[in-house]
Amino acid sequence: MARLLGTLRSSQPVARFQRCCGLFPAAEEGGGDPYIVKNYFYYYLFKFSAALGEEIFYITFLPFTYWNIDHSVSRRMIIIWSIVMYIGQVSKDILKWPRPLSPPVVKLEMRTDAEYGMPSTHAMAATAISFSFLIATVNQYKYPFELGLVAAFVFSTLVCLSRLYTGMHTVLDVIGGALISAVLLVLLYPAWDMIDHSLLTSPFCPLLSIVVPLILCYNYPKLDYYSPTRGDTTTILGAGAGATVGFWLNNQYVAPAYTGENLQLGFPLITSKIVVVVLARFFVGIFVVLLTRQLMKSVVLGMLRYRYKFPIGDLEARRRLEVEVPYKFITYSSVGFSATVIVPLLHKLLGLM
């Protein structure tokens, strides 16, 4: 068993997987580029799959679900995503397992190379989102369970394999991330309805939704050098906090979630009118979300620069705890709040509800 774990944790299986998929270090081919691609199908497939675990996916798919499919499904996915990602990020900085060595592995991403490897949070997020979506919808909508299961498995598998292809994780990192996520889903599933009901109806929800994530962010494990994990964790918890406050406000003042009143489309028969409405909701919503993010970044960073007296280009100052946490938390909690409160109100105003 120890030998097997050692093999799964080593860089060699990752390097062999890359070579099988047509990805080679430039040194082996005598070229001047960092790497040589011999199979562009796998290159674009896994680059796209890797993006399914990045901010661009979260900021589009999760709001899309809330605006166009089902509020309850979206709430559950966002809560599960926040919990799973926090546990995964903290685990990285507690375990401190290094990422695959280069060489022999080819690294296609540089930003996350400063983080530790175990567990793969891409694998955790992909498993959590795909299977929580399946579990939350299978009893509400009529579609073959087997089809949903295959779709969830393919989605999570592609994201997991992309982390090997890009050279960011060992096989054990990916397996560990997927298994941790699966265990958390099993443990949290019995309490889904209770957690959802409490978040929507408890008078303490808005306060706890802000205070608890902030405490977790300010008490994030300290490292000997800077790593983007604390900032990424603050981004995730901030977005989850803002969305949760939005869920509570909607339930209290707009449309109570437990009255049977529905603001979303669900899974209707596809018609041209429905497609137009869905696309209109999405593009209007994404515009507002991105505008909110950009505005809040500028405003919050400006206020922090005034408070702590650092120049706009001082990257080291922006990495300090007292700057990074409020900067990212306020920005992304505003994004979460905007997606769940401001955008639906705008949809209603524009006649898209």
What does this structure look like?
- Keywords: Membrane, Transmembrane, Transmembrane helix.
- It holds the Pfam family PAP2.
- One of its GO terms (biological process) is sphingosine metabolic process.
- InterPro entries: PAP2/HPO, PAP2/HPO_sf.
- GO terms for molecular function: sphingosine-1-phosphate phosphatase activity.
- By secondary structure, the chain is mostly helical.
- The protein has 15 helices and two strands.
- It has a two-stranded antiparallel sheet.
- It is globular and about 60 Å long.
- The N and C termini lie far apart (56 Å).
- Mean pLDDT is 83; it is low at 257-269.
Which sequence of strands runs across the widest sheet? 1-2
**Radius of gyration of CA atoms, rounded to a whole number:** 21 Å
How confident is the prediction overall: mean pLDDT?
83
Q: What best-fitting shape do the alpha-carbon axes yield?
A: globular
What portion of residues is helical?
Answer: over 70%
Overall structural class, as computed from helix and strand content, comes to mainly alpha
Protein name: Sphingosine-1-phosphate phosphatase 2
GO molecular function: sphingosine-1-phosphate phosphatase activity
Organism: Strix occidentalis caurina
Domain Phosphatidic acid phosphatase type 2/haloperoxidase: 74-189
